[in-house]
Amino acid sequence: MTTVPRPRDSAATRGALLAAARTLFAERGYDRTTVRGVADRAGVNQALLFRYFGNKESLFAEAVTAQALAPLSDGPPETLLERLVTAVFADEPDGAMFHAVLRSGGTPAETVRTELGAAYRAAFAAQAGTDDPDEADLRATLLLAWLLGLGQVRAEIGAGADRGAVAHVLRAARVLLDGPTPSA
């Protein structure tokens, strides 16, 4: 009896590993996610994870970064703040990558946070209501720090359940980014 080898589909395998990694990193964070767990969830041998990504750190970076940067290119710059706040407060899977980065410690997560922070800080600084580049960077940095803090306590705020919370955050974030309104 001759067995027919199963056709290989590297793109499907790679995609399954990325999907499994996104889910597990969002649920457990970097430290509590294992390569074995990712491979098991994807239904493949963990050796394939190493073949496609090299190591857990590279898998984390690829699984998280592209999706977390998506709001930067998913619409016009003037709606970025709304897209990001909505994503931060979204129920899974929309907010999954932000929460994966927030829940994860260690060097790989810090590297991803640094990359994401630089991209978002530049985008928000470009929208800041000031011509002073240092002031624009400060406003963007404060905005991101505040949003990350809110993301960490979103369960207490009512993630996804209360659009009112998103509206309040958007109003306050806009004031922080635009600066104070002149007194009449």
Automatic annotation (TrEMBL):
Residue intervals of the HTH tetR-type domain: 11-71
DNA-binding annotation, residue ranges on this chain: 34-53
One term of GO molecular function: DNA-binding transcription factor activity
SUPFAM superfamilies with a match to the protein in the record: Homeodomain-like, Tetracyclin repressor-like, C-terminal domain
PROSITE patterns: HTH_TETR_1, HTH_TETR_2
InterPro entries: DNA-bd_HTH_TetR-type_CS, Homeodomain-like_sf, HTH-type_TetR-like_transc_reg, HTH_TetR, Tet_transcr_reg_TetR-rel_C_sf, TetR_C_16
Top-level taxon in the UniProt lineage: Bacteria
Keywords: DNA-binding
Listed name of the protein: Helix-turn-helix transcriptional regulator
Organism: Pseudonocardia broussonetiae
